[in-house]
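# step 3/5: fold
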Amino acid sequence: MVLLFTLFLTSGVALAQSDSSTVHISLHGNYDAMRLSRGVRTEEDVTRTLKQQEKFLLACLQSVYSGLGKDAPKGILQLRLLIQPDGYASDVQIMRSPLPLQMLQDCIQQIFSRARFKNVRESSDQQLTVDYTIE
């Protein structure tokens, strides 16, 4: 009897979870229009590093959007990364976003602080600005 009751409860939870409105979004990086400072030597290396981070960025956005509902605004997410001479981002700023959320800033900061950009000149911090479209 206890087993039957437990099965009923777990199936009820599964049904309740499937009824919740999950928001599916897609992310497109516009690397053709990204702006690099003169310190970064090759766009190919930068693009490769950015593309490697896309799945983490999409997962971050998906978790934020899942708590907001289907009417949450979508649009352009513009990031500015300050890249140190060792290739790691010292700061990530959200220049434009459909979502003015602190949790988004924290998540994005963690994603890009782990990414290493190659072929950065041994000078001061370099700037990289890239646009993403959230659909």
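# step 4/5: annotate
Residues 38 and 126 are 8 Å apart (CA to CA).
# step 5/5: archive (pending)
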